[in-house]
Amino acid sequence: FTPTSGQNYDANTPISITATPTSGYGFVNWTLTSGTATFANANDVVTTVTLSSNATIMANFSAPVTLTVNHSPTAGGTVTPTSQSGITVGTPVNISATASSGYEFFNWAVISGAATFANANNAATTVTLSSNATIRANFQLIPGSQFNPNVTYGSFTDSRDGRVYRTVRIGNQTWMAENLNWAGDAGNLGVCYGNNASNCNFYGRLYNWNTVMAGSPSSSSSPSGVQGICPVGWHVPSYAEWAALVNFVGGSSTAGRELKSTIGWNSGGNDADDFGFSALPGGRGQSGGFGNVGISGYWWCATENSASFAWGWHMNSGNSHVSVDFGGEANRFSLRCIMDD
């Protein structure tokens, strides 16, 4: 960097300093090692420093990092690149995913390290690394390619944030085929699992029951009549509406096989997803933190069991059951909205 050390300067006079990274390295910041000095902006590669005593400053650089790219399921498609080394921290890297016949791209997710996508929902986008990182392209079977031909597939755009959700009509019900990911106008509704935004992109958000209901009372009706935090034209399903779905696809002992996604479940828990409902294991949030992502999915319904407890539906990686239980309303579960009919 310039200027070099050992030069004399007037106290309290700004001195121009510049750091020039060598190839592959990135500038991080300026730090004060000894003495007394103030930076105009310690994060700018070109800035000024003002000394009030003899001082030693340091320009900090980051070493080149490596990107590893994989995909799931293996048969779902290909990715470019599969790996790339010598990447400068903070420099966007082009990535792309190409789906195989019968599959479609779902999203990008960070598996390890620190990285940010320009758009995690675009097959061709960029990723910016802050460290060595592994990312994954998620593919899924195209709705209708392996599903019941009597089931209708579509999409819905939430006008509140422009997010597009896949939809599926099973029997006489039309469901979102993805967990709700609405953060509210102020961005403070619900949480991402582990407070990691990439988990919202894949699993949707986790909400407590009172947030889901948005002030509405419990409902056992079918339809529930509770819009809650669902978009206009959609509502929070009641216990009875969930039960109707589970019974339609074969009953609670096998409904998990019919409703669970073909991707995202740990320990061989991916299932047939014969109806395109694509249930994902978003885990849950509770007073002790977060738990069971990749292992279990929990979904609220609009029906209370008793004061401070509401019914929820549960699927697990280890079996094909769909079970129902009640949870404390302060817990955070996923939400599937159902269309008003």
Outline the structure in words:
By secondary structure, the protein is mainly beta. The chain has 4 helices and 23 strands. The protein has helices at 197-203, 209-213, 239-248, 255-259, and strands at 15-18, 26-34, 37-39, 46-51, 56-62, 65-72, 77-80, 83-87, 93-99, 103-112, 115-117, 124-129, 133-141, 152-157, 164-170, 173-176, 234-235, 284-286, 289-291, 296-306, 309-316, 322-328, 338-339. The strands form 8 sheets. The protein has a 4-stranded mixed beta sheet. Strands 7-9-12-11 form a 4-stranded antiparallel beta sheet, with no helix packed on it. A 3-stranded antiparallel beta sheet has the order 1-4-3, with no helix packed on it. Strand 14 and strand 15 (164-170) form a beta hairpin. It is elongated and about 80 Å long. The mean pLDDT is 90.
Distance between the termini: 67 Å
Number of helices: 4
Q: Classify the helix fraction into a percent range.
A: under 10%
Please trace the helix and strand order, writing H or E for each element: EEEEEEEEEEEEEEEEHHEHHEEEEEE
- Largest sheet, order of strands side by side? 8-6-13-10
Radius of gyration: 25 Å
What summary fits the major beta sheet? 4 strands, mixed
pLDDT below 50 for ≥5 consecutive residues: which ranges?
Answer: none
Give the integer mean of the pLDDT values: 90
Spatial shape:
elongated
Which structural category fits the helices and strands? Answer: mainly beta
